[in-house]
């Protein structure tokens, strides 16, 4: 399997670092990070990641708005997006799926399980 590239869009630096360490150390994936929705939109277009982990709650442009902009851009609309969220209510989950979000991972998450969780959600087989 080729090395996967994952873009992490989260305004909390320590969350970015935890995800980056887990994915690079455990799975050997390449991780690129963005601190905001706007930066994430640029990074997604430039880096063309295999997947995006996107925080829902961010200042300025929130995760759902960022997701809609990713979907509106032909260069990024086919990249699968997994939302990172503390809101895991069924109504929210259904709404995210209706929008076309690939999956959600609830915060807090177990960093040691994160690579397997992403692989399973995106059907990335070894």
Automatic annotation (TrEMBL):
GO MF terms held by the record: DNA binding
Pfam families, sorted: Response_reg
InterPro entries reported in the protein's UniProt record: Bact_response_regulator (IPR050595), CheY-like_superfamily (IPR011006), Sig_transdc_resp-reg_receiver (IPR001789)
This protein's UniProt keywords: DNA-binding, Phosphoprotein, Transcription, Transcription regulation, Two-component regulatory system
CDD domains membership: REC_RR468-like
Family annotation (Gene3D superfamilies): 3.40.50.2300
GO biological-process terms attached to the record: phosphorelay signal transduction system
Name of the protein in question: Alkaline phosphatase synthesis transcriptional regulatory protein PhoP
Species in which this protein is naturally found: Acaryochloris thomasi RCC1774
Protein encoded by which gene: phoP_10
